[in-house]
């Protein structure tokens, strides 16, 4: 596996879910937190509710240049999970919000998304 392929799959693991609801925030963030070397709760994470294939297409024709990043042409549903006020490690509790019709801003390397830089109207 090339480094870029690993980075692409890391992007998918961190940010792409075929299906996800708000009630999954705690469970999904527990998995993310288990891969952080310091013992802490990650403040937030955005999950793109889509197929991995569709998200990868942003880097090979379904996106447009946006500075040194790429903005998706199509829109996506996002579940944003944020650390609940007062929550502290190891009891990392999360609350979620749903965003719809959002364009994705990603960094592409070797035709794969490697960093999620947020979303736009």
Provide a short characterization of the protein structure.
This protein has 121 residues and is of the alpha+beta class. It is built from 3 helices and 7 strands.
Question: What does this protein look like?
Answer:
This is Ribonuclease A-domain domain-containing protein. Its main location: secreted. The chain is an alpha+beta fold and 121 residues long. It has one domain (3-120): P-30 Protein, CATH 3.10.130.10. Helix content is 22%, strand content 40%. The protein is built from three helices and seven strands. Strands 1, 2, 3, 4, 5, 6 and 7 form a seven-stranded mixed β-sheet that branches. The longest helix has 13 residues, at 3-15. The chain is globular.
Which structural category fits the helices and strands? alpha+beta
* Uncertain residue segments: 1-6
CATH topology: P-30 Protein
Instruction: Give the radius of gyration.
Output: 15 Å
Return the average pLDDT rounded to an integer.
92
Helix-strand topology string = HEHEHEEEEE
Tell the overall outline: globular
Q: Termini separation (Å)?
A: 35 Å
Total strands: the figure is: 7
Protein name: Ribonuclease A-domain domain-containing protein
GO molecular function, one term: nucleic acid binding
GO biological process, one term: defense response to Gram-positive bacterium
Keywords: Disulfide bond, Secreted
List keywords for this structure.
121 residues, alpha+beta, 3 helices, disordered N terminus, RNaseA-like_dom_sf, nucleic acid binding
């Amino acid at each position: 596996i090339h480094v870029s392929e690993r980075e692409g799959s890391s992007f998918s693991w961190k940010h792409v879910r075929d299906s996800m609801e708000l009630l999954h925030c705690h469970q999904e963030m527990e998995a993310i937190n288990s891969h952080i070397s310091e013992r802490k709760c990650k403040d937030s994470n955005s999950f793109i509710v889509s197929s991995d294939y569709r998200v990868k297409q942003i880097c090979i024709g379904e996106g447009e240049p946006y500075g040194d990043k790429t903005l998706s042409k199509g829109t996506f549903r996002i579940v944003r999970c944020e650390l609940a006020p007062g929550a502290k490690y190891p009891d990392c509790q999360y609350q979620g919000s749903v965003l719809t019709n959002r364009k994705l801003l990603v960094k592409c390397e070797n035709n794969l998304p490697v960093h999620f830089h947020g979303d736009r109207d």
